[in-house]
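Here is a typical sample entry:
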Amino acid sequence: MTSGRTRDGGSHAEPLRADVVVVGAGPAGCVVARRLADAGADVLLLEAGDHPASPRAGLLDVGPGSRVVRRHPAWIGEGFWDLPRGRTLGGSGAVNGGYCSPARPADLEAWGREWPRRYAAGLARASERLRPRLEPMGPVATRVAGAFPERVSAIAQARIGARRVTAFDAWDPAGAGVRVRTGVSVARLRWADGLVGGRCDGVVIAGRSHDHDDDNVGAVEISATQVVLCAGTIGSASILRGSGLGESTGHPVGHRVQEHPEVLLEVPADWAPGEWAPGDGGVPEVPPALLTHVVRLEFPDHAREPLAGDDHVRPGPVHADGPRLAVPEVEVRPYALPMHRFIPGLDPVPLRIGLALMNPAGVGRIDAGGTVWLPTEPRDSEVLSAAAEFVADRIGVGRPALTLSTSQHLSGSARIGEVVDDQGHVLGVGGVRVADASVLPELPRCGPYYTVLAVAESLAADMVAARPW
């Protein structure tokens, strides 16, 4: 690793305190750490992972032997999964598809009156740093787009040629003087005077993630005027719960989390580019972009009246003679190659495209032990089945062979308005904020990566204005 940009051995005698401790060097953590350091704060950025991710664009290093992810147990429908989440500098943005799709204004209106404006400002700042680029449409996307020519949208990529661009690259927190420490897992928040839910005045370290010749932290606790949790939807929820916050303190942590359910539709193998045809081969030296274009389809015949607790579903048009209906939207994802061509160590699989429900009715939870529960929602299953039949017919693949999947877009474990306020403060608690996908009030109808960056920029601007350190 490069000195100054990653783990910094430092002196064993350096004071274990900072103005601000940011937990998690994923997309949100890199944004917040950089912006606060630029504003003059002494920032310590803690990352549990201690292995660098590959800079190869297109590589999804989430396979069985990956050293840059942590796997979380999950029940999706009736099946058991392990959900990989990035555990490295750049977080999941260093191992995911890297596509950048902004939320639409209609998605943001449900967040609150000010959020469309705040989001636009945050997105502009994020775009200046990340500078995502469009990639040409490949053969699979061309086939699918030809069946739906008026419904195609291009998806920008966080890459420059053959190199992935992560938030750690783009925001470069170390370049602003942030002290970056890797291999450091935070167990819980530290409470002033031991009063749980009073004022947070630091963090308690779980211990080093692996054995090192040098000691990253050298002690159990770190003092801070402000702690910002950016450990991801699962990680931040685990820290909050491990610190004593939950239902008993009026904080519904881990409740009503959202995901974009997905099914995979097998398509002919010869749709893939000839040089990367399906087979037993591994990941190419420079894989193409996983997803350059999507097709967005609405299914008004499956519009439904929102049920109690179903307010997150995008409403449809209001008619004078009928109820306010929710119109399901499905995103068709023409993945460029079979997944084993992107994921090292994955057994060969057929060429498939994804169909994801972008405004699902179903919600899930993260339990106290960190297991994710995403039960089957019959209304969502019905929409995805209908979408698969429709798409299969339009692209000419006959009866669809479907595989249950997930988009890996989990969000909302510490929602704005329920666990935190509009500035990310944990409600009724001093000294701690949350600024990652955990806080999203509702999951937008797009991959959340770009949205997490935009929201982190907005929340970081609030912190700079308040200067709580």
Summary: Confidence is low (pLDDT under 50) at residues 1-13, 209-218, 311-323. Residues 378-395 form the longest helix (18 residues). DSSP finds eight helices and 22 strands in the chain.
